[in-house]
Amino acid sequence: MSSEPLVLGVDVGGTKIAVGAVTGARARDMVERPTDVSSTESLLDGIEAAVNDVIARVGRPQGVGVGVPSQIEYATGTVETSVNIPLAGVPLRAELGRRFGVPVFVDNDANCAALAEAQLVSAEGAEGHPAAPPCSELVMLTLGTGVGGGVVIGGKTYRGAHGLGAELGHVSINGDGPPCPGNCPNYGCLEAYCSGQALERDATELARGRPDSPLHAALGDDGRVAGREVVAAAEEGDPDALRIFARFARMLGVGIATFVNVFEPQLLVVGGGLSRASHLFLEQAKQEAGARALPALWLRVTIGLARGGADAGLIGAGVLAAQELAMASRDTERQAEFTEGAR
Ligand SMILES: [Zn+2]
What we know:
There is one protein chain. This protein has helices spanning 40-58, 92-100, 109-124, 196-209, 214-217, 227-235, 239-263, 282-292, 295-298, 312-342, and strands at residues 7-12, 16-23, 26-34, 63-68, 70-73, 78-82, 104-108, 138-143, 147-153, 156-157, 267-271, 302-305. The model has no long low-confidence stretch (mean pLDDT 93). By secondary structure, the protein is α/β, with parallel strands linked by helices. The strands form three sheets. Strands 3-2-1-4-7 form a five-stranded mixed beta sheet, sandwiched between helices. The chain has a five-stranded mixed beta sheet with strand order 10-9-8-11-12, sandwiched between helices. Helix 3 packs across helix 10 and helix 4 (196-209) runs antiparallel to helix 7 (239-263). Zinc ion (ZN) binds next to loops.
């Protein structure tokens, strides 16, 4: 096998676009630009400019992987729906492929992050042991404004028939629960309990009913308690905020037990912006999950925090491009053998 191809990973976020060259689970020569969301054209121009900045440093890549906060029809790389950035309906894979002149692969950012986590295990070694193989069975939950997720099966991203699957945040854990805050008609989804939006909803409700409480004092000009205020109140020991996190943790545990039972991952990791407050919920969530998951599966799984941090999306996008290029070259070799054999 020849040396690894040069691939770039692109992470398109609501506020910034990050691009870097990716080798294994490492990114280098990274650049960042603010995301221009004023129009589709200016957003695409911004992605192109950031990629060209990296190309100027590292040379022309053989492929580019792109992660976006959107639902993607994977085969065509067309954006189905997109929150916060103007990409809905855009054939992103074809559009960027035309601009870069190399193969482009587009996936949901949570899928990219999960793929990065599976590689990071190999780079760092599980439990401090070096040179562990990549984790082939992994589930990642991304807790942020909403709840995203990614599933790696056999080392590859699981996407369903069209690339729209693995929406782990929209698994309902209570059919009569609160309406899902996402673009989703269901009730009691994990996102309705374990997201920044759910924290805000619960804290705001509580604050309005208790004028003397610290949460009431944290009500903003918009009449709502921001997620970071709930975190701050819980860290200071406010019983209301702690109660909110106790339910958050319990429901997260219910969700984790469900995913362990369905996928039997080696590793289930929790990432996203809210994972920075994991000291307020992760241990309790683990206990809840351990009391609910099927014992034979629970014995064999490790639950932990995501390691990729802010670069996980970028790294995963690069890993995706490298995997797709490797598969394409194997297909070409097989085709050549077949042609050879037919002579
Ligand atoms: Zn939902």
